[in-house]
Each structure stands twice: as structure tokens, then as C-alpha cells.
Amino acid sequence: FVSSDEYKSFLKRLPADRFLNTSVILQYWTADSSLQHRYGQLDASTKQLLGKAQRIVRKLFTLSKRCPKQPKISLPRERPISFWLNRAQSVLYCTEHSAPGTFSEEAHSCTCAFEHLVCQGTVPCLVAEGAACASCAPDNITRCNSCHPGYVLHQGTCRPAVAGSLDHYVNFDTDVPDAEAKYLLQHLDSRMEIHAIYISSDVRLGTWFNPSWRKRMLLTLKSNKNKSNLIHILLGISFQICSTQNSTLEPVPAIYVNPFGGSHSESWFMPVNQQDFPDWERTKLDPSLQCYNWTLLLGSKWKSFFETVHIYLRSRIRSDDPNSNETIFYEPLDPDDRSSNLGYMKINSFRVFGYSMHFDPEGIKDLILQLDYPYTQGSQDSALLMLLEMRDRINRLSPPGQQRLDLFSCLLRHRLKLSTSEVVRIRDSLQMFSSKLPNSSDPELGQLCS
């Protein structure tokens, strides 16, 4: 079989411009019809010879029953296909100076016969699916000439590409240390306050109101108009609320957070006191007054982006039974019926705490533009890497939930003012590029923004 024209022709047709592992050689092996026919003949003749040998062995054992010593018979084993694949590798890479050797794919080197000390030939660079190298250098096939996406060429080898600094686009380094943030938030330090615009047609600050039905309020930053170069991180919320002395009601706030703007439907609900999410902390301001500071401290664990905080305030009847878990919401059938009035409330202040980060929307748009009009050969991959890093770092601050949310798409949609089709195109481009990177994993994200 080794001396057959089919086998020799097969070896000559194997490409020598890149390294061939046994899996690749097997593909060429199965695609060569003439070689398969010749190998089938070898297989048939081997089985025929093996059957004849087994008959002879049985006859020998029958004749040797009365012999004082039983014969030792060894039959040649059938060579598996892996033997022939490795032999092809050995012919390609271990026949320097006509000296035979055996190639080891694990060690990527040859084992030469004792009398032939130099059989190691030239082993080309590895070009295969999942490998870093895309092609070997024509002048030196042991070195790489070009790399797959996610790698950069350095002195003939491909190294994992690293995204450039994002400081010019989004300055993630303006984080506040946990211990410092916790101390400042507990003291409601004004240095941590982000000044937002209070808007409500239901409740005026500092004015008593009847807490019948649900009241809607919001704190917004209007960043596109006032602070287009900043995005904001929410670390805590605090409001001061008072109730009349005879009131048997207590407030029940529900919070929705809009990360980068848009409609209310593009907000996520804050799961206060669910699982391990923090609960409101209530502090009485004056023993003689029914005034409390309600504070929700998110800290670094639960921090997230925000542009607008929506507050929905309902009231429930305070229960005197400490063992009762039932919540009875106060919603009178007739809001004008004074006899059903259980007290009034007043909100003196609403504050949000956190910090702001530098943000360059025009710079990010320019980065996105390079996806279609790259400056240089590698600038498109560089732009994709930076956008991918930016996407992952922004989505890392996704709010709690069974499924993480795609906040990066919200940023593109509302802070960069891109169309829905453009956002989808960028998202698909990043997913396609990410799938080609080593050790990539793109979890399924929920879409918050349309």
C-alpha cells in the first residue's frame, strides 16, 4: 500500500504551505476516491489474510494438544487509520536528509531513528479553524503572515488583541470606592448628590396632599439638552415625607429607572426588598413630627445607569398587628368623600445620589463610522474591539433580574440618537465579530429599548 501510486499521489497533493493536523489530513484522505479504492483493497486483502492466519492457528492448536509445551503464536494487528494519518505527517515533516522519523502532533516535533540523528524537517505554522493564524508567511512558513479577527501579528506569531483605552469615549475610571461611597450615602452627603429636575402634576414639593390613589413623580436630568457629555450612575435615592398626626397611612413607593432616556416603557422596575436587593431605610427626623427620611442605598453591587427615575407613590393602611403580612392599599371609592380621609402627606424633598462619567457621543459615532469606512487595514478590527469592550462594560451594570438587559443598545438609541435599524446593525456586527474571538460567550440579553 505504501508503494502504491495512489498513496504516493495522495502525499504529493497534501498542501505544504501550512501545518496539517490529523483531522485535516483525514479530510483529504476521505476526499481522495482513488486512494479510498486502493485502501479498500488493502482492507479486504488484510481481512482475507487474517482469516487464513486464524484458521492456521486453530489447526496448530489442535495438533499441539498432546505437546508438553504450547506454541506461542503472534498475529500482526490491523493498522488503524490513525496510523496512516500519522505516517503522512511523518513523511511531510520528518524526512529531512532522507532520514525517517515519527512525528508527534502533541510535541510538534519528530522522533528520529537512533542511527539518523537529524530527521526533523520544517513544520509550518498552524492554520485551521479555531487557530489564531490565518496564513503562513511565504518566505518563512514557520511564521504567521496574517491573523484571524481578535488577534494581532507580532514577530511572526498571533497574539490576542486587546481593546484600546476607552477613556476618550467613556471614562469608567471615575468610580467611587465602596467604603467611601457607603459612608457618604449614609450621611446623604451633598457631594454625592446629582441635581435632577423634579416633575409631577400630582404632587408639589412642600405641599400637603391627599394620598388617595397613585401619585406619579419623576426626577430627570435632561442630559441630551444640559449635560450631553456626561452619563450618570445611580447609587441611592432619598426622599423626605411627612404625614399628619392622625394619619393611619404609610407610603408605598415603586421605583422605575430609565437608563439613558426615551419613554417610560424603556425603564426597569427596581425590585426593592426582593431576594437580596436592599430595602428602604426609614429614619425619623423629629419625635414631635411624623416626618421620615426614606433612603434606598444601592451601593456598588446594585448601581446602574440612570437618566430618569420614575416614582409611583401609593398608600397602605398601617397595621397594628405585627404578625400581619397583609397589605391593604388605601384607594377610596370617592376621593372627594372627606369622611374616608385617613390623613394627609407632604413630600419635602426628593434626591438622587451617584456620580457622573465623561462621555463623548461624537467620538463614539466616529468609532462606529470606522465599521464601514476604516482608516487603515486594522482599524476596523480595532474599532470593533473597542465597541465590544464598551458594550460589555456598560451591560455589566445591567439591573438585577432573571435576564440581563442590553443597556448598550439604549445608549446608542437615546444618547447617540441612532435609528433602530442602525442600532440593530451595530448589535449584529458586534455579535458576529465576538463569535470569531477566542473564548467568546455572548449571553442572550433582554431588549429594554426599542
Automatic annotation (TrEMBL):
InterPro entries tied to this protein: BRINP, BRINP_C, Growth_fac_rcpt_cys_sf
Pfam families listed in its UniProt record: BRINP_C
One GO BP annotation of this record: negative regulation of mitotic cell cycle
Tree of life domain: Eukaryota
Domain (BRINP C-terminal) ranges: 4-450
Protein name: Bone morphogenetic protein/retinoic acid inducible neural-specific 2
Organism of origin: Lepisosteus oculatus (Spotted gar)
